[in-house]
Design brief:
Layout (H helix, E strand, L loop, with lengths): L2 E9 L6 H17 L4 E3 L17 H16 L7 E10 L2 E10 L2 E7 L11 H4 L10 E4 L2 H7 L3 E4 L3 E6 L7 E9 L9 H7 L2 E8 L7 H14 L4 E9 L7 E2 L3 E4 L2 E5 L8 E9 H9 L2 H8 L6 E4 L24 H20 L3 E5 L4 H22 L3 H11 L10 H8 E7 L5 H14 L2 E6 L1 H15 L12 H29 L6 E3 L5 H6 L7 H4 L3 H12 L5 H11 L6 H18 L34 H13 L12 H4 L25
Parallel strand pairs: 1-2, 1-11, 2-3, 8-16, 9-10, 10-11, 17-18, 17-20, 18-19
Antiparallel strand pairs: 1-15, 3-4, 4-5, 6-7, 8-9, 11-12, 11-13, 13-14
Helix pairs in contact: 9-10, 10-11, 10-12, 10-13, 19-20, 20-21
C-alpha cells in the first residue's frame, strides 16, 4: 500500500486584504499539518483574493503577492508538506494566473493557467494571458528579493507535473506524480487531466474560484467524478467560500474524489473563514484501477509526453493499521430553498462585517419580495448564533462588535441578535391594506427585527400640493379617473418617498438609539421586474404581461440568447395551442419595447447577490447597450412577415397537441433545440 494523506480547504478570502488572506492561509496549513497531511491545496488566487479585478493590472498587487509568498517560505509553513498557492505572476511582459507549488521552503515549479474563464461573471482575459507553450517547461527568473531570500535563482515555469521519487520501499523505487488543474480547465472539452493521467499523474489538484449559482454544485461534482471514473486518480478540489468584495458568493464545497467516488466533502455554505477537508488514500488503488482498464493501458502506451520536475522526496507511507483509509460517502446537496436562504444569508454576513456597518434596514411591505429578503436576514442571524454555539471565535467577535455587546455577553438567540442589527419599516399609504400591514408585523416579530410602522400619506400630499401650486393641476390614480401617465407618476412618487425615508432612517436611527455607525439599506425587487423596468408596484395588469410570461421572456433572452425573431419562433411552438401567431407577436413586441425603454435602470442597479444565469444585472454579467431603438423596426418587420406567412389569426395547434408537452425537446426554428423551457400556458388562470 502507498498511503497518502491530503488536505484541501474552503477559505473566506477578501480581495486585496493581504493580512486577512495570509491569516487564513496559515491557519489552513497549520490544520493540515496537524492532521498529518503531506499535500495542502488552497483556492485559486488565494493570496490576493480572486475578485481583485482591475487591481490585477497594478504592479503593487503582484509585488504584494510575492512578498506574502516570501513570508510563507521563510517560515516553517511548507516544511514537510507540498503546498499549492494561487497568485498572479508576471513572466516577461505577460501576466499569468498561477499556482505556485512549494515544499520545504523552496518553490518547486510555477504552473500558469492554460484556459481562462471568460464568460458569464468571469473576465479573466481582461487581466491575464493563457499559457500556450505546452510542450516544455521554461526557466523563470525569480524576482531579485525573492531569489536572495530563498537562495533560488530560477525555477521551472509552464505546463507540467511533479514526480516524487519515493524510496521508502526497499525492493524498488516508485514514482508518484502530482499535477495542477486550475478551475476552468476541468470544464473544457479536452481537460488537462486526461493527458496527465496517461502520463502517470495520480493526484490532481484543482484550485478554484467558483461562485454559487442555483443547482450548479451538482454539475461541478459530476465533473470531479467523471475526471477519475474512467481514468482513475485522486482529484482534490479547493474553493473560496464567502463574499470577497463583489456580487458573487463563492460556495466552497472543497472535496476529494478517488476513482469516481467522493471520499471527503466540505460545506457549501458556512460563516467560517477556514475549513480544512482531510482524506487518506491508497495510491495502489489508483494503479490497480488503471491497470484493469485495457483502453487506458493502450492509450497510455502512445501518449503525448508532458514535461515534469523530479523531486527526491517521499510523500507516501507504507501499510500501517494506525492510518485509516477514507471510504466513499453520500454526497451532500442542499434543497433549492436552502440554497436560496443560506447563500444570500452568508453573503450578507460577509458584507455586513466587512463594511463597517451596524446592521441592516429593510422597507418591509408585507409582499413576497421584501418578505423574502427579511427571511434571508433572519436566516443569517440564525447562522451566526449557530456558528457561535459551535465555537467559532471569529464569528463571535464580529457579532459582539456589530451587535454592541458588552460585559462578556454575546448572541445566544437569533431573535435577540436580530433586534440589535435589523430594522424593518412598514411605509403604508391610503392604498395599503390592513392585511399587508399585519403580515409585515407578524414576520418582523418572528424574525425579531426592530419594527416601525409609518404612514407616508402626509408626505405624498405635500408633494401633490407643491405640484398643484406649480402647475395648477393635481394628478389622480387610474381608479379615480386618472390617466396612465398620472397613475404611473403617483406610484413613482410613493416609491421615491419610501426610498428617501429609508435612507434617512438608516443613517439616523443608530443615533436615535445612542449607537455608533450606520445601517445598510436593503432593497427588494423581483428579477423579472428588473428586466421589465417595473420596480414600483406589483401589478400584472399595469405591466401588460404576467410574471409567468415575463420569466419566459427573460430566460429566452439571456439563457438561450434569443433576439425578438428567435423568441417569436420559439414561443409560437410553446404557446401555439393557446395563442395565434399574431398574439404571440404582440406579446414579444410588447416585452422588447419596454425592456428597451427601461434597460438604463440596470446600469445603476445596486450591488446584489448573483444567484443564477438569468440575472439581467448590467455590471458585468449581462453586458448590453442601454440606449435602444425601442421600435426595433427591422426585427419587428421580420416578425410581421412571419405572422403573415403563418396565417397569423389562427391557432396553429389543437388543444391536444403534443407541442406543449414536448416543449423541451422540439426545435423551435431558432437554433436552440429547446422551446421556452418551463414557460407554461400564458392564458392559464386568466
Amino acid at each position: 500500500m502507498r498511503l497518502l494523506k491530503v488536505a484541501t480547504c474552503n477559505l473566506n478570502q477578501w480581495a486585496m486584504d493581504f493580512d486577512c488572506n495570509m491569516k487564513n492561509i496559515k491557519e489552513s496549513i497549520a490544520r493540515a499539518k496537524e492532521a498529518g497531511a503531506v499535500i495542502r491545496l488552497g483556492p485559486e488566487l488565494e493570496i490576493t483574493g480572486y475578485g481583485c479585478e482591475d487591481h490585477f493590472l497594478e504592479l503593487d498587487t503582484i509585488t504584494h503577492a510575492w512578498e506574502c509568498l516570501k513570508d510563507l517560505l521563510l517560515g516553517d509553513w511548507t516544511d514537510g508538506i507540498l503546498c499549492s498557492f494561487g497568485m498572479p505572476v508576471i513572466n516577461g511582459s505577460e501576466r499569468y494566473n498561477c499556482q505556485v507549488l512549494c515544499l520545504n521552503r523552496k518553490i518547486i515549479m510555477i504552473r500558469p493557467k492554460l484556459w481562462l474563464a471568460n464568460d458569464g461573471n468571469y473576465r479573466e482575459l481582461r487581466w491575464f494571458t493563457a499559457w500556450k507553450q505546452k510542450d516544455q517547461l521554461e526557466d523563470f527568473l525569480l524576482p531579485h528579493e525573492i531569489s536572495e531570500a530563498l537562495c533560488q535563482k530560477s525555477i521551472p515555469f509552464g505546463y507540467g507535473f511533479i514526480q516524487f521519487l519515493d524510496t521508502i520501499f526497499y525492493i524498488y523505487t516508485l514514482i508518484r506524480a502530482v499535477a495542477v488543474e486550475v478551475c476552468e480547465e476541468l470544464f473544457t472539452p479536452i481537460p488537462p487531466h486526461a493527458d496527465l493521467a496517461l502520463n502517470g499523474v495520480e493526484v490532481f489538484m484543482n484550485a478554484s474560484g467558483s461562485h454559487h449559482q442555483l443547482r450548479k454544485l451538482d454539475y461541478r461534482i459530476r465533473a470531479f467524478i467523471s475526471a477519475t471514473h474512467s481514468r482513475g486518480g485522486v482529484y482534490m478540489y479547493s474553493n473560496q467560500q464567502g463574499c470577497d468584495g463583489g456580487r458573487l458568493y463563492f460556495d466552497g464545497c472543497s472535496c476529494v474524489v478517488v476513482n469516481g467516488d467522493m471520499i471527503a466533502q466540505g460545506s457549501q455554505f458556512s460563516l467560517r473563514d477556514v475549513e480544512v477537508v482531510v482524506a487518506q488514500v491508497d495510491l495502489d488503488a489508483v494503479a490497480g484501477f488503471r491497470g484493469s482498464i485495457s483502453s487506458f493501458q493502450e492509450q497510455a502506451s502512445c501518449k503525448t509526453k508532458i514535461s515534469s520536475v523530479a523531486v527526491q522526496y517521499s510523500l507516501c507511507q507504507p501499510f500501517n493499521l494506525k492510518m485509516s483509509l477514507s471510504g466513499p460517502l453520500k454526497i451532500t446537496y442542499h434543497s433549492p430553498e436552502e440554497e436560496i436562504a443560506f447563500g444570500p444569508g452568508c453573503w450578507l454576513w460577509d458584507y455586513l462585517r466587512r463594511s463597517g456597518a451596524s446592521g441592516f434596514l429593510l422597507p418591509l411591505s408585507g409582499g413576497a419580495d421584501s418578505s423574502s429578503v427579511a427571511a434571508i436576514v433572519g436566516c443569517m442571524c440564525q447562522l451566526v448564533v449557530k456558528e457561535i454555539a459551535n465555537g467559532d471565535e471569529q464569528v463571535k467577535a464580529d457579532a459582539i462588535r456589530i451587535g454592541r455587546y458588552a460585559n462578556g455577553e454575546f448572541p445566544t438567540e437569533s431573535r435577540e441578535f436580530a433586534k440589535r442589527i435589523f430594522y424593518t419599516v412598514f411605509m403604508g399609504s391610503e392604498n395599503s391594506s390592513q392585511e399587508t400591514r399585519m403580515r409585515a408585523k407578524k414576520l418582523a416579530d418572528e424574525i425579531g427585527s426592530w419594527h416601525l410602522d409609518v404612514s407616508i400619506d402626509t408626505v405624498v400630499s405635500a408633494f401633490l400640493s407643491l405640484f398643484q401650486t406649480l402647475t395648477g393641476k393635481r394628478p389622480r390614480y387610474k381608479v379615480d379617473g386618472g390617466s396612465n401617465v398620472e397613475n404611473l407618476g403617483l406610484q413613482n412618487i410613493q416609491a421615491r418617498i419610501r426610498m428617501v425615508l429609508a435612507f434617512m432612517l438608516a443613517s439616523l436611527l443608530p443615533w436615535v438609539h445612542n449607537k455608533q455607525g450606520f445601517y445598510l439599506v436593503l432593497g427588494s425587487s423581483n428579477v423579472d421586474e428588473g428586466l421589465r423596468g417595473y420596480l414600483t408596484k406589483l401589478d400584472e395588469v399595469d405591466m401588460g404581461m404576467t410574471y409567468e410570461e415575463l420569466s419566459v421572456y427573460g430566460r429566452l433572452r439571456k439563457i438561450f440568447h434569443c433576439g425578438p425573431v428567435s423568441m417569436f419562433k420559439n414561443l409560437c411552438y410553446r404557446w401555439g395551442a393557446r395563442l395565434t401567431p399574431s398574439e404571440v407577436a404582440e406579446k414579444v413586441k410588447h416585452f422588447f419595447k419596454y425592456y428597451s425603454i427601461n434597460r438604463h435602470k440596470m446600469t445603476v442597479l445596486t450591488p446584489s447577490y448573483h444567484a443564477e444565469s438569468y440575472s439581467p444585472e448590467d455590471n458585468r454579467f449581462d453586458l448590453r447597450q442601454f440606449l435602444y431603438n425601442a421600435r426595433w423596426p427591422y426585427q419587428f418587420r421580420k416578425i410581421d412577415e412571419l405572422v403573415k406567412e403563418l396565417d397569423g389569426e389562427k391557432v396553429p395547434f389543437g388543444e391536444s397537441s403534443d407541442h406543449e408537452k414536448m416543449g423541451t425537446t422540439l426545435d423551435g426554428g431558432g437554433g436552440m433545440g429547446v422551446i421556452a423551457a418551463g414557460s407554461g400556458n400564458p392564458k392559464a388562470g386568466h
